[in-house]
C-alpha cells in the first residue's frame, strides 16, 4: 500500500475511531476525543470516550501489519510507548483527576506466548470480562497481575519505584485486548475491521435500508472515517452535532439498537 508504518497506524486508528463514532451516533456516548494528550506523559490519548452513563474510557491502539505475538519487550522497552512503569504511572495520574475511567490497550498482536510475559499478563476471567473494547471487533483480553509483577523479574526491578497502591490501582483498571482484527483500508474490498464497521452502520444506523436507501453503508463509513481523521488532525473532540455535518451521513434516520458495549 506504500504507507509508512506510522501512517498505516494512523489510518487504522481512524478506522477504529469510526467504530466508536457509531456509539456516539446512537446516543451511547456523549463525546469522543481523538488523539489528545490530557497531560504530559499521557499514554492513552488515541480515543477518549465519555459515555452516557457518566463513565469514561480511554483507548490506546497499537497496529502491526504482520502477525506476531505480543512480546515482553513491548512493555520492557519504550519503542511502542508501552514501557510498563511509564504506562502504569500514566494510568495513575489519569485516575487521580478522573477516577471513573477504564483503560484499554488495543493491539493487533496476538496473545502472548513468552513465559516472562505470560507469568504477569493473564486472561480475564469470564465473570469480570467486559467484552471487546470495540463492539464488533473480537479480541482476547488480558489483565496484568500486580502480585506476579512484584514477584518476577524483569518486572520486579522495573517497577521498584512504583508504589503498591499505584500498581494495584493501574492493574485493576487496565485491560489488554489482543488479536484485534486486521484492515484492508479499502471500504470497497473490506478487511475484517472494515466489515465490522459496515455491519454496525447497517444494523445500528440503518444505512442502505428504508428509510435510508439513498445512504449506503460504504458512504457512511467513509464519512465517519473522515470525521475521525479531521478530529485527529484538527478539532480533537467529536459530538453528535459534528456527525450531522458529515454530508454522506446527513438525513440518516435510525433507531438505537441495544447491544453489549464497554461503558
Q: Could you characterize what this model shows?
A:
By secondary structure, the chain is of the alpha+beta class. The chain has 2 domains: 1-34 and 183-254, no CATH class; 58-64 and 73-94 and 102-178, no CATH class. It has 10 helices and 8 strands. The chain has helices at residues 5-25, 73-76, 84-97, 115-118, 146-151, 155-158, 164-173, 192-205, 217-235, 240-244; strands at residues 29-34, 47-51, 56-62, 101-107, 121-123, 140-144, 174-178, 237-238. The chain has an 8-stranded mixed β-sheet with strand order 5-6-7-4-3-2-1-8, with helices on both faces. Helix 1 packs across helix 9 (217-235). The longest helix has 21 residues, at 5-25.
Any key phrases for this structure?
single chain, 263 residues, alpha+beta, 2 domains, 8-stranded mixed beta sheet, 10 helices, 38% helix, 15% strand, disordered C terminus
Amino acid at each position: 500500500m506504500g504507507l509508512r508504518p506510522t501512517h498505516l497506524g494512523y489510518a487504522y486508528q481512524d478506522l477504529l475511531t469510526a467504530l466508536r463514532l457509531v456509539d456516539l451516533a446512537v446516543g451511547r456516548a456523549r463525546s469522543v476525543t481523538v488523539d489528545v494528550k490530557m497531560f504530559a506523559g499521557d499514554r492513552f490519548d488515541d480515543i477518549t470516550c465519555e459515555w452516557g452513563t457518566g463513565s469514561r474510557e480511554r483507548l490506546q491502539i497499537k497496529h502491526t501489519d504482520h502477525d506476531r505475538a505480543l512480546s515482553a519487550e513491548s512493555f520492557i522497552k519504550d519503542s511502542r510507548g508501552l514501557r510498563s512503569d511509564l504506562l502504569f504511572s500514566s494510568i495513575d495520574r489519569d485516575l487521580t483527576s478522573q477516577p471513573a475511567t477504564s483503560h484499554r490497550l488495543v493491539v493487533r498482536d496476538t496473545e502472548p506466548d513468552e513465559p516472562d510475559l505470560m507469568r504477569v499478563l493473564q486472561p480475564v476471567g469470564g465473570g469480570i470480562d467486559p467484552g471487546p473494547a470495540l463492539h464488533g471487533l473480537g479480541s482476547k483480553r488480558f489483565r496484568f497481575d500486580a502480585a506476579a509483577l512484584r514477584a518476577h523479574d524483569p518486572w520486579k526491578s522495573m517497577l521498584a519505584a512504583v508504589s503498591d497502591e499505584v500498581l494495584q490501582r493501574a492493574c485493576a483498571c487496565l485491560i489488554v485486548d489482543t488479536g484485534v482484527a486486521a484492515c484492508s483500508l479499502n471500504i470497497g474490498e473490506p478487511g475484517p475491521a472494515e466489515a465490522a464497521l459496515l455491519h454496525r452502520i447497517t444494523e445500528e444506523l440503518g444505512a442502505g435500508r428504508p428509510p435510508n436507501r439513498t445512504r449506503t453503508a460504504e458512504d457512511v463509513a467513509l464519512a465517519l472515517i473522515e470525521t475521525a481523521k479531521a478530529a485527529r488532525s484538527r478539532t480533537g473532540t467529536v459530538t453528535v452535532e459534528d456527525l450531522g455535518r458529515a454530508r454522506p451521513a446527513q438525513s440518516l434516520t435510525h433507531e438505537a439498537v441495544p447491544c453489549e458495549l464497554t461503558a
